[in-house]
Amino acid sequence: MFYRPEDGHGLPHNPFGAIVSPRPIAWVSSRGADGVDNLAPYSFFNGVAYVPPQIMFASTGAKPDQDAGKDSLANIRETGVFCVNIVEYAMRDAMNASSETLPREVDEFAHAGVGRASCETIDCPRVAGAPAALECRLTRIERLPGAANYVVFGEVTGVHLRDDVLVDGIFDVTRYRPLARLGYRDYTRVDEVFPLARPDDR
After folding, report:
1. In this structure, what CATH number is given to the domain that contains residue 160?
2. What pLDDT is stored for residue 68 in this prediction?
3. Flavin reductase like domain: which residues (predicted)?
4. What residue numbers bound the domain in which 182 lies?
């Protein structure tokens, strides 16, 4: 089949998210200027540069108690910092609980029963025990076409790695099994990896 997005797909559910998958999940923690902590997952997320290390995540949709975007976006605009926590399969239920739309004064760490720890380079909480966490300073926010579509870019200023996922100096994702987003209400996890040498490496 072929369809133009502006004309609709004619299917029971939008296939776009299933096509662009699997997607890593940025479990973004932030703190508002009022001191309230926030924790929310975003599946439009990836690394975008090595030197200096930089990441991006996209926020889509709005909340009635925020002027534009969601709580994470509002907090990052106010403070200029945030942390991306990597989600392991064992934390899938807590991650899902933190995705609930709640009033901006609600602390999702407490709501989802997630432990928090302090960051080293920024004034922001991180998920205690996460396999990895990336402390970030905002570099830019880009508005995209659509009602409430934004991309947040940040430079990584600190990296936390859980000791048990380091094996012979390698960050071994099979030790914690990253959770990834598919389409619809579906997720997957990484249970095995395989090497593939690039032509330039031969």
Report:
1. 2.30.110.10
2. 73
3. 20-178
4. 5-191
- The pTM for the full model equals 0.95
> Measuring CA to CA, how many Å separate 92 from each of 2, 129, 177?
34, 14, 11
How confident is residue 61, by pLDDT bands cut at 50, 70 and 90?
confident
Residue 201 lies in a domain: no
d(CA 151, CA 138): 11
How many separate helices (H) and strands (E) can be counted in the chain? 4, 14
Q: Which are the contacts of 66, defined by CB distance < 8 A and separation ≥ 6? A: 73, 74, 104
* Residue 145 domain flag: yes
Distance CA 132, CA 68 (A): 29
Q: What is the pLDDT of residues 66-108, one digit of tens each?
A: 877 789 999 999 999 999 999 999 999 999 999 999 998 999 9
The residues near 45 (Cβ < 8 Å, ≥ 6 apart) are 23, 24, 25, 26, 55, 56, 57, 58, 84
Arithmetic mean of pLDDT over the chain = 95
Read off the pLDDT of residues 124-168 as tens digits, 9 standing for 90 and up.
999 999 999 999 999 999 999 998 999 999 999 999 999 999 999
Number of domains within the chain: 1
- Compute the distance between CA of residue 181 and CA of residue 19 in angstroms, rounded to an integer: 11
The phi and psi torsions of 55 (rounded to 5 degrees) equal: -130, 165
Cα–Cα distance measured from residue 133 to residue 126, given in angstroms and rounded to the nearest whole number: 7
**Token reading at 38:** 């926030």
